[in-house]
Amino acid sequence: MFDYGLYLRKEKFPLIWCSGCGDGIALKAILRAIDRIGLSKDEIVMVSGIGCSSRLPGYVDFNTLHTTHGRAIAFATGVKMAKPELTVIVVTGDGDATAIGGNHYIHAARRNIDLTVILFNNWIYGMTGGQVSPTTPFGKKASTAPYGSTENSFNISGLAEAAGASFVARETVYRPQVLDKLIERAIRKKGFSVVEVFTPCPTGYGRRNKIRTAIDMMYELKGNSVQKSRAEKMSPDELKGKIVTGVLVDTDLPEYTEEYQKLIDRVRS
Amino acid sequence: MVRKERKRIRVMTGNEACAEGAIAAGCRFFAGYPITPSSEIAEVLSAELPRVGGKFIQMEDEIASMGAVIGASLAGSKAMTATSGPGFSLKQENIGYASMAEVPCVIVNVMRGGPSTGLPTLPSQSDVMQTRWGTHGDHPIIALVPSSVRETFDLTVRAFNLAESYRVPVVLLLDEIVGHTSEKVELPDTGEIEIVERQKGDPTNKEYLPYKHTESDIPPMISFGEGIRFHVTGLCHDETGFPTNDSRQIDLLLRRLNRKIERYQHLIIDNQTEHLDDALFAVFAYGSTSRSAKWAVRRAREEGIRVGLFRPTVLWPFARNEVHSLAQKVRYIIVAEMNLGQMAHEVEWASRGSTEVIRINRIDGEPVRPLALLDTIREVARNV
After folding, report:
1. Which range of residues forms the domain containing residue B162?
2. Which of A50, A59, A67 to probe the B interface (max B CBs under 10 A)?
3. Would the pLDDT of B2 be above 80?
4. Which residues of chain A make contact with B229, given a CB cutoff of 8 A?
5. For residue B87, is pLDDT > 80?
6. Does B265 have pLDDT greater than 70?
7. Measured between CA atoms, how close is B239 to chain A, in angstroms?
8. Does B72 touch chain A (CB under 8 A)?
9. Which of B129, B157, B192 is the last residue of a domain?
């Protein structure tokens, strides 16, 4: 039995998250991944922005930095540049990383700086009460989209891929054993890596969209997930509304802090 | 090639002197975004920082630059950014974060005309109130304001020293004239420069509290990765660094944050004065405007007019006791500035009615000219 207690600040419990929220499943997957890699707690800096998922660092026994809304990746960039030997993990949400923080997300991917971003996508702004987010599917309801969203939603993994990330993967909390392996690969990867984690928000999202219970939301995630290998054989019509899971990008590119160190060595030699 | 030993006597601009001062102070991280009239600071540091093993990054925007500076400082680097009006506006939220989380850092604002995009290439001093109150909430801030190229070097070093001493963001306010004026300067030898390092916590002390209410009001710092794991947040927090809604803890925190500057202000505030001993009235001016004022006061003295100069090099915390004392002695204080009276208001408030404040203001992108000030001095002299 895995001892999560080794990594948790249990005195900070209970968690802020609602019953039925999937964030705790993702938290456990992150801890299993870190444990497998064998990183010491001192060498991990976990950085977050604002939102439900961004409260995660408060519960884990690492160097933890809870920043301003949308800016976790910017703060993390400073930490990583100052001390490249640290493993810097960003925990963020769909609103935090792709609305207010979208610029930092794509530019960190472009630089290919060695950060691991665990991006919790629950299609909603959970903490502020279920407002529409950049990933709310078209037509779905939110507290600020009472008649259904009239906007297209972001493909946020695709965004990271297009911007130049080294590693991009997507999974749902319905499959936690796969999720932790993807997170492990993302942390091990030298370069900018993203794991987009689909996680249910029964309180902010399910309730308004006729998915009555947390269990129903899990079944929804299960039913809508398609593994990448299978998705490649499906037509765009068949893929509509589906969550394509698995490793979407895994490529070796020059990493920013290493390149900068080479620059320092060059000008000083 | 290792960083060449720079010539001590050189012609340089205020922006270049700022970059040189930062390196001399031990700055090893800069994140910024191009903006006129501050960009030369970033340009010089992009070349010089790697030569001393430091890091430079041009971020995607001003907000990110401020965030990266805070991250680097928490990881142990002396860190700085440089900007101008519109960029300074964008940085405000994260400047508040630095105040709240007590992260030492230096923000250079080379002031240009505002509001909005305003006058990108022309000087102003209209960000002095934004410097004090630009970010929301009651918060501490220190702001320094040099008037020459050499003073820009010195005050950049001092900005880092104050930031590291008091764990606060320090704003260095140049104006476009100071930033772009070229002057012959003699830089101090490395050994002559006083460098202050942040007070470090003991990384072997398992009882370490990152926000402990110590007797000095300034908790010692430990950097990320040094062996003590703790939490940093912009939320109201207790001594452990974790968020709290306990009203007693909130009150303790916010009062300490503000008190730590209030109680040390006598060590922070600095004013340069001339001819005040027997002055019947005074000119209050800072930044490039104070150079016009200095010339005008000296000329007036030659004409036998008993006027003196009060030139603060620290705007925040404001020298209210010193200005109050001055107001007891003189009949008028002429406050000259390139805005509509932002510091004049402070001077009036500190004077508490003991003297009359006369405002000289320019907001058209032109400096307050020495002759215009001399005319005002002569006119006031007729009434004294």
Report:
1. 9-192
2. A67
3. no
4. 41-42, 61-64
5. yes
6. yes
7. 14
8. yes
9. B192
Task: Say how many domains are in chain B.
Answer: 2
Distance CA B97, CA B112 (A): 25
Q: In chain A, what residues touch B104 (CB-CB under 8 Å)? A: none
Chain B residues near residue A104 by CB distance under 8 angstroms: 60, 64, 67
Say if B65 falls within a structural domain: yes
Looking at the fold, whether B172 and B276 belong to one and the same domain comes out as no
Tokens of B138: 């009651």
Domain boundary among B162, B192, B222: B192
**Residue of B229, B233, B251, B252 whose CA lies nearest to B243:** B233
Question: Residue A253, SS3?
Answer: coil
- SS3 labels along B323-338: HHHHHHHCCEEEEEEC
Q: Is the pLDDT of residue B120 over 80?
A: yes
pLDDT digits (tens, 9 = 90+) for A29-60: 999 999 999 999 999 999 999 999 999 999 99
Residue B339 maps to which CATH number? 3.40.50.920
A258: contact with B, CB 8 A cutoff: no
Cβ-based contacts of A67 with chain B (< 8 Å) = 67, 70, 97, 234
Are residues B28 and B119 part of one domain?
A: yes
**Across the interface, do B1 and A47 touch by the CB < 8 Å criterion?**
no
Give the chain A residue whose CA is nearest to the CA of B49. Answer: A264
Tell me the C-alpha distance between B117 and A42, whole Å: 45
> What is the SS3 assignment for A80?
helix
Q: pLDDT tens digits for B17-54?
A: 999 999 999 999 999 999 999 999 999 999 999 999 99
Cβ atoms of A80 and A92 closer than 8 Å: no
Q: Does residue A62 sit at the B interface (CB-CB below 8 Å)?
A: yes
- Identify the CATH number of the domain in which residue B112 sits: 3.40.50.970
What domains are defined for chain A?
A: 8-268 (3.40.50.970)
A107-144 pLDDT tens trace: 999 999 999 999 999 999 999 999 999 999 999 999 99
Cβ–Cβ below 8 Å for A78 and B29: yes
* Residue B240 covered by a domain: no
How many whole angstroms separate alpha carbon A72 and alpha carbon B180?
A: 35
Element (H, E) at B144: strand B142-144
Locate B383 and state its tokens. 């009434």
Is position B92 within any domain?
A: yes
* Residue A178, pLDDT score: 98
This model of the complex carries an ipTM of 0.97
Chain B hits for A264, Cβ within 8 Å:
50, 53, 55
Q: Are residues B172 and B66 in the same domain?
A: yes
